[in-house]
């Protein structure tokens, strides 16, 4: 049985922000949400967030997360002092306490599970996560004894002697405690150290036995203290996601220019070209080539689709369609199989039947078409009257000429031909040619007459 406590009371001065540090976003989720995610598979019995700086703000921001408890640390007197705040709410508790830092967002769930396993198998009083860093500056150094890595001492960077500073094993700030042991020593912590703080690390060395577990990938335990580290963490997160998709059979051309949310799904044999960004619940099926230069958000892309230099949000594209260059699909568009949507076309809340083409310079809003429709260059639906949006329906095989304006609400039957330059404001039955343009007025000899007048004046 495990209870989780997340340290999130600090201000995060180095972020230079009015937003509390743990609420800063990393790849769409706040730092503290990511910490919560890493602990989810351990199925904690309770999840307690220790808040302090802008406590109310943090609580409100996390309202939507179910079953969280908040404990307030009104003065930030150190990590040990923060955990002392758990004495009343955990009184009588007999299980383990997992302590995490709210600003360490890249931990893998497997790492925490391993920590818990070592802790429980060895019946430790405390087990701490450690790492070997090439540059351990700033971290607490952990001194161990014996093969099983029993922890002897943890010394904060600011309290280290020159010799102690050479130690490369650092304290990641992630701990598992047997609560009944910890609660006995917590009240007796002293603050006689360089920072005049109550250190949680002092409590660690006052219980026994304590083991250290080295994490293999040191990137997991990197803390976020400033914007540079936030950007660095995003890069690490992105590399993890991209490496995973490449291993699963996806080609990424110029991976460093591509970003992919962890919520995206990509089938094998997809090619993602440079400068492409995949977000939200997007799914890309096999055989697609996406990019270069595209943004796809929360959209479903069927098999063998190509998308070039385009933006697609909240939409679906069926198999074999070709999208772009410079297409914008938004607000629940559904593109049928084998459609071709081309240059400078915007579709909004529109459904296209199979093999329909909208190849150039068009806007269709609130429109439904049948199959094999051809929307001519520059066709525009006038779907908004200044108050309401109105629908347009277009039947199978219908063709709109270049520069048609379709004034909604409008029903065009199937097999309708609309002459170029027409403005259509009434419903049209099946099998009909519509020419809705004004008659030309011809004035023969007008130009030469005008020229003559100019020369005479
Ligand atoms: C701490 C560890 C250090 C370790 C490092 C890993 C101690 C004494 N030292 O140092 O050994 O290498 O983490 O990152 O624990 N916090 C509170 N209340 C407080 C003080 C801090 O909630 O009164 C929170 C902070 O918001 C932060 C976390 O605790 O999320 C760590 O605090 P921080 O001051 O950054 O500790 P470090 O000096 O980094
Ligand atoms: Ca610090």
Question: How does this structure look, described?
Answer:
With 457 residues, the chain is α/β, with parallel strands linked by helices. The termini are far apart. An 11-stranded parallel sheet has the order 12-15-18-21-24-27-30-33-36-39-41, covered by helices on one side. It has a 7-stranded mixed sheet with strand order 5-4-1-6-10-7-11. The chain folds into 2 domains: 2-221, Alpha-Beta Complex (Spore Coat Polysaccharide Biosynthesis Protein SpsA, Chain A), CATH 3.90.550.10; 227-434, Hexapeptide repeat proteins (UDP N-Acetylglucosamine Acyltransferase, domain 1, 3 Solenoid), CATH 2.160.10.10. The chain contains 8 helices and 41 strands. The model has no long low-confidence stretch (mean pLDDT 96). Uridine-diphosphate-N-acetylglucosamine is lined by residues 7-10, 50, 52, 73, 76-79, 81-82, 101-103, 139-140, 154, 156, 170-173, 199-201, 223. Uridine-diphosphate-N-acetylglucosamine binds next to strand 1, helix 3, strand 10 and helix 6.
Question: What attributes characterize this protein structure?
Answer:
457 residues; 11-stranded parallel beta sheet; UDP N-Acetylglucosamine Acyltransferase, domain 1; binds uridine-diphosphate-N-acetylglucosamine; Spore Coat Polysaccharide Biosynthesis Protein SpsA, Chain A
Short description:
With 457 residues, this protein is of the alpha/beta class.
Ordered list of secondary-structure elements with their pairings:
Layout lengths: L1 E7 L16 E2 L2 E2 H9 L6 E6 L3 H7 L6 E5 L6 H6 L11 E6 L7 H13 L4 E7 L8 E5 L4 E6 L13 E10 H7 L14 H5 L5 E5 L12 H21 L3 E2 L6 E2 L4 E2 L4 E2 L4 E3 L3 E2 L4 E2 L4 E3 L2 E2 L4 E2 L3 E3 L2 E2 L4 E2 L3 E4 L3 E2 L4 E4 L1 E4 L2 E2 L4 E4 L2 E3 L1 E3 L4 E2 L4 E3 L9 E3 L4 E2 L4 E3 L2 E3 L3 E3 L4 E2 L7 E3 L11 H11 L1
Parallel strand pairs: 1-4, 1-6, 4-5, 7-11, 12-15, 13-16, 14-17, 15-18, 16-19, 17-20, 18-21, 19-22, 20-23, 21-24, 22-25, 23-26, 24-27, 25-28, 26-29, 27-30, 28-31, 30-33, 32-35, 33-36, 34-37, 35-38, 36-39, 37-40, 39-41
Antiparallel strand pairs: 2-3, 6-10, 7-10, 8-9
């Amino acid at each position: 049985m495990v209870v989780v406590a997340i340290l999130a009371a600090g201000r995060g001065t180095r972020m230079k922000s009015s937003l509390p540090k743990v609420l800063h976003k990393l790849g769409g989720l706040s730092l503290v949400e990511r910490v919560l995610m890493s602990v989810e598979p351990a199925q904690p019995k309770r999840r307690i967030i220790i808040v302090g700086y802008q406590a109310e703000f943090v609580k409100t921001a996390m309202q939507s997360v179910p079953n969280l408890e908040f404990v307030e640390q009104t003065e930030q007197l150190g990590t040990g002092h923060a955990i002392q705040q758990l004495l009343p709410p955990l009184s009588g508790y007999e299980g383990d306490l997992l302590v995490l830092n709210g600003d360490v967002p890249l931990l893998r769930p497997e790492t925490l599970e391993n920590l818990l396993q070592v802790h429980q198998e060895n019946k430790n009083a405390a087990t701490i996560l450690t790492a070997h860093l090439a540059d351990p500056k700033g971290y607490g150094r952990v001194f161990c004894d014996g093969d099983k890595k029993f922890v002897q001492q943890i010394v904060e960077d600011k309290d280290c002697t020159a010799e102690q500073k050479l130690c490369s094993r650092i304290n990641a700030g992630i701990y598992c405690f047997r609560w009944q042991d910890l609660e006995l020593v917590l009240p007796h912590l002293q603050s006689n150290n360089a920072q005049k703080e109550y250190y949680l690390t002092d409590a660690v060395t006052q219980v026994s036995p304590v083991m250290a577990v080295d994490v293999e990938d040191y990137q997991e335990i990197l803390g976020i203290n400033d914007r540079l580290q936030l950007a660095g963490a995003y890069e690490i997160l992105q590399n993890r996601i991209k490496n995973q998709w490449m291993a699963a059979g996806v080609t990424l051309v110029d991976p460093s220019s591509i970003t992919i949310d962890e919520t995206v799904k990509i089938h094998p044999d997809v090619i993602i070209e440079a400068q492409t960004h995949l977000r939200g619940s997007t799914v890309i099926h096999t055989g697609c080539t996406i990019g270069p230069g595209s943004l796809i958000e929360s959209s479903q892309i069927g098999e063998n689709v190509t998308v070039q230099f385009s933006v697609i949000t909240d939409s679906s594209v069926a198999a074999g369609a070709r999208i772009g260059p410079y297409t914008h699909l938004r607000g629940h568009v559904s593109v049928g199989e084998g459609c071709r949507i081309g240059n400078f076309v915007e579709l909004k809340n529109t459904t296209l039947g199979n093999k329909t083409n909208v190849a150039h310079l068009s806007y269709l809003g609130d429109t439904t078409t049948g199959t094999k429709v051809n929307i001519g260059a520059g066709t525009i639906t006038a779907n908004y009257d200044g108050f309401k949006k109105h629908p347009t329906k277009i039947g199978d095989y219908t063709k709109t000429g270049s520069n048609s304006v379709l004034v909604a609400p409008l029903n065009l039957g199937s097999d309708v031909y609309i002459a170029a330059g027409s403005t259509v404001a009434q419903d049209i039955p099946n099998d009909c040619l519509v020419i809705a343009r004004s008659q030309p007025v011809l004035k023969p000899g007008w130009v030469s007459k005008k020229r003559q007048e100019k020369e005479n004046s």
